[in-house]
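Running this now, will post back.
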Amino acid sequence: MNEERLHPVAAAGLVIGALLGMAGSFAPSAELRGLAWGIDGTALVVASALLAVHHLRRGNEQLAAGFLVFLAGETLMVSGSAMDLVAVGPTFAAGAGLWSASLVLVSASPVMPRFVRVTGAIAAVLLAVPTARIFGGADLTPLSQPLPFFAFPFLAVTLLGWAWAHARSSSRDAGDNAIVRVPGEPSQQPTPHLATSSHAARLQRLQRLHRLRG
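Update: finished.
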């Protein structure tokens, strides 16, 4: 997949993940929550995989590592999408811990806009706290309040910020690669008249060389 397609696909995956992730948190039934979180997780896995490859090509190893760690965490989250909230606690803690680590890696990179780095850092801290508590034996679920429930809005905003940053980068790259033509300037492509004149000049030179040799 080339860069022109990679950015829009990755940005779309991030947007879908952010919106359906929040929608699943407020779903009226376990079935709808599992469906929303399953689609959300799949979209985020695809997006983070594409972004890891993209930044690895660009030489941004830190960002590539951040998205790879996010990918690992998201696979754990997807595996527990349809599980009971109480039963999925340990799996959620493992995934949230990897989310937190990935957010730190991505937010520490100066490539990302400052606002997105700030929201990512806040989300990382808010996810790390319940992760440590669950690992310590606390009986928390993914929807326990205040945490981890109130970490999700910051995570969603960060995902939308990642999508915006990469969509903006794609537009800027496209603009840099485009040929800007100032009105009134002649086209750089050769016109048929110029091509015909050039061919006639070559024929005349060949004829003069032929007469000299004769």
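The radius of gyration is 27 Å. More later if anyone needs it.
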